[in-house]
C-alpha cells in the first residue's frame, strides 16, 4: 500500500509559474485526508506559497503535506505554521561561478531571446535557475520557445564542461536548473524517506518530465513507482483515482 504521493509542481499540479486551479486545490485537500502528500520542485519556497499553499482550503490537513523546494535541498513542514526543517545553500563563491558559467553558455549558443519578462537568473539559495524568457514570462510564450528541449540541451552540454561538481537539469518549459552534483529529485526522494520514515517502495511519484533528461527522471532512477502525466488535467484524474481507491 502506498503511503505517500509525491508530485512535481510546474506542468503537473499547475501550469508553469501559475496557481493551481479551482478544481486542483480541493482535490489536493481531499487527497491529504487519505494519505501523506509531498510536492518537490526546482522552484523556491515563495513559488510554492504563490502557486499552491494560498489556494488550499482552510480545513486541509496540512500536517500531512511536505514541501521540498529546490529539489529537496530545503524542506518545509506544517506545525502551527510552515517551518523550515533544513536548507543546504550555495556559498557566495559558488553562486558567482555558476552565474558566470550560465552567462557564457548562453552567449556561446546565441539563444538570447528578443524579449524577456522579468529576471532571467534567479538565486534560489541552494539552486541557481536560468529562465530563458524571464521569471514572469506568460505560459503561451514559454510553450513555443523550446518545446523539444533542443536549445537547452545545447546549453547544458556547454555547462557540463564549465562546471565541475554541479548538476545541470532542464526544468519547466524554458528553465535550466543548477545544483550541487547529486542534487536532483532522487536526492529529494531520499530526503523524504529519511525525514518521514517512509520507504521508497511506499511512495508514488507523479510528474510530467519523467523522460530521460527530464528533471523528474531522477525520481524514477531512485526506484519510485512513477506515473507520467502530460498536464494538470491528467494529474487530476490520477488524484481522483487515488482518493476513490483509498476512501
UniProtKB/TrEMBL annotation:
GO cellular component labels: cytosol
UniProt keyword Hydrolase present: yes
Alphabetical UniProt keywords: Cytoplasm, Hydrolase, Isomerase, Magnesium, Metal-binding
UniProt keyword Cytoplasm present: yes
A GO molecular-function descriptor: phosphatase activity
BP GO annotations: GDP-mannose biosynthetic process; mannose metabolic process; protein N-linked glycosylation
EC numbers for this chain: 5.4.2.8
Cofactors that this protein relies on: Mg(2+)
Listed InterPro entries: HAD-like_sf (IPR036412), HAD-SF_hydro_IIB (IPR006379), HAD_sf (IPR023214), PMM (IPR005002), PMM_cap (IPR043169)
Assembly with partners or alone: Homodimer.
Record family assignment: Belongs to the eukaryotic PMM family.
Name of the protein: phosphomannomutase
Source species of the chain: Chitinophaga solisilvae
Lineage, uppermost ranks: Bacteria, Pseudomonadati, Bacteroidota, Chitinophagia, Chitinophagales
